């Protein structure tokens, strides 16, 4: 019996480490991009996370998204729907990395088309992550029932999921404002995107039991 259970522990630790890695990259990404841009290109916050593609942090931006995509492709859940969601999230985040946003000044029709694909992939990625947090992560074994720590983690998943959802809605609303409005000068899209990415990171860190670990 002990011999059969020995290989399971490394596998469990591997999956937990995978989830933690996804969470750490997501949690750190906005801060790394902003600080890195400060060191490489000078002070100032860009108007969105995607805009860092056109800064000295391009490789960090693309590399981080591709790393998240590879982790998500390797993610295996308890049911087929978990695997499908992970594969879709991988496809969406890789698409976000490979199709850059349209440049700010006089983009060509091709650049606008590629930029539109970038927005579709990015929005689909966050919608899939919201689905993870609000539905997949909160599932519980009905035969055992939720533990006290599981209930606490479910609360974190709910907060993170609704935070991402609200941030996406607010981004859509903010983008309807005139570009010269006073609010747009505060770069609200960057801060809302950062909030969504941090919520994504917190959700996956919790899933990896870096936060609110089970007592046994």
Fold and architecture overview:
- The chain has 7 helices and no strands.
- It is mainly α and 216 residues long.
- It has one domain.
- It starts with a helix and ends in a 9-residue tail after the last helix.
Total domains, how many? 1
- N- to C-terminal separation? 19 Å
Number of helices, counting only DSSP H or I runs of 4 residues or more: 7
Query: Compute the gyration radius: what is it?
Result: 19 Å
Uncertain residue segments: 1-8
- Largest sheet descriptor: none
Sketch the topology as an H/E string, one letter per element.
HHHHHHH
Overall residue-averaged pLDDT value: 88
Structural class: mainly alpha
According to DSSP, the number of beta strands is: 0
Helix content: 55-70%
Give the overall form. elongated
Quick tags:
disordered N terminus, mainly alpha, 216 residues
Write the layout of secondary structure elements.
Blueprint: H1 2-5, H2 8-40, H3 58-74, H4 80-98, H5 109-136, H6 148-174, H7 188-207
Give a short synopsis of this structure.
The protein is an all-alpha fold and 216 residues long. Helices cover 69% and strands 0% of the residues. Helix 4 runs antiparallel to helix 5 and helix 5 (109-136) packs antiparallel against helix 6 (148-174).
